[in-house]
Amino acid sequence: MRGAPGGESEDGGAEAQRAAQVLEKSKTRASADAAGERAWASERQAVVDIGSNSVRLVIYDGPRRAPAQIWNEKALCGLGRDIGPDGRLDPMAVDYALATIRRFRGLLNEHGDPPSRVIATSAVREASDGKAFVEAVEKLGFKVSVVDGGEEAQLAALGVISCEPGAAGIVGDMGGGSLELVAVKDGAVGDNASLAIGPLRLIQQSGGKIGMAADQINKALDSLPWLNKGGYQSLYSVGGAWRAIGRIHMLKRRYPLSVLHHYEFSRADALSVCDLVAKQTPRSLQEISGIPRRRLDTLPFAALVLRSVLERTGVKSVMISAGGIREGLLYRDLSDEERAIDPLLAGARFCADKHSPEPDFGDAVAALIAPLFADQSPAAARVVRAASILVDIGAFSQPDLRAKQAFDTAVSAQLYGLSHGERVSIALALFVRHEGRRPTSADYAEMLGLLSPEDQDRATRLGLAMRFAADLAPKAPGAFAGCTLTRAGGKIEFKAPKERQALMGELPRKRLEALAAAFDAQAIEVYY
Asked: Where are the domains of the chain?
């Protein structure tokens, strides 16, 4: 239904004024957020992590607040696996590690020698020849920082906080030689400790007999009375062994979304999978896809430690975190202003900058449609904002596949600071933005099952709002100047200057009507 130019009631005028104020605030906020999220240019940087079990190179690109891994390579060198009676590192492991690091040096040279941090943890810091090993690494052109147990714990916690700003509970970083445990709340690090009960250490000390490792684990945990305080909501699981246990649980329940970050399962489920893994032989674990062969003998010991930590802390759930010591290194170097940036929005913006023909279009869409969702919680508003920023990430795909490509990109993108449900909500909204309806294929059914019917409805309305905006003025953010989109009194009202009226052709009008129908409302147009 079209309203006469300038024709509106007194109540309608007041509503329009409020809508204009909301729109102006949205634009101001969007502009400020965009400036903040882009204030620090994308930077390629790297971390070489020399652990007790693995030696890893991660190269990052993207915003400093939400760096994306563009290369992640590890070699299971086992530096802490066969330390001799004299405390020296195994010579074969040293040769393997140095050959791996030599390769990493060459790769970084090919990348233009980006800023790189190199750290070594428990195996190197405790070995009698650790200093000699560090000197050999530094001859390859690296400056090595050997972190102590306390620093390692702090970095692991900061890595989790960088990806989960609201993290509250216990961070557990299971390395090959040690376990770091840290209490976190509201972005702050609390009680923490580093314990020598990594699976490689336990294997060595128990002679590979898992039944003999329990006493060592309990003795170590007995030294941390703060673990028994209770009240911890989640255990944030870091480190390859515990992530592998999370992967096993994911496969066991046939979880439809194969993104480990923020994968959450209950305490009861965690105890169950720990019992399952602790009883397995390396041969039986080998049948599970995605588990590196050289990690197989460590998993039962890692599971035994995880079970003991769960029993001590009383946490209600386990959450797998992509953040760890490497991400903690990067986060530690940020200013307070950079840390305050929302990693979800920074990551979404980086993705949009890479995939959208007009990256600023998402901010214009966000500002226009925000008043429709003004009654939602701050958490839901973040999802609206992130989805709007990503509104055009399917633009360069083959037209018939844009909806699928946008959905798949949102599901698989390196986005942090969001739950799996929020990730699927964004993906669903982007699908609807292109197709005007939810996907009906069975390929999507299980993934959409992660959302409640109400969540699916909200994502659908969000997708239809983005669809209207995207078809009203494709890739033209300036066209929304002076326009408002509001919801009140059973009406969805689009208001625009007279000179914009020509943009409202048959296609965008259909989109506006579909959007209004999703809200059980009537579509109204007003031009002034």
From this structure: 10-38+342-527, 45-146, 150-328
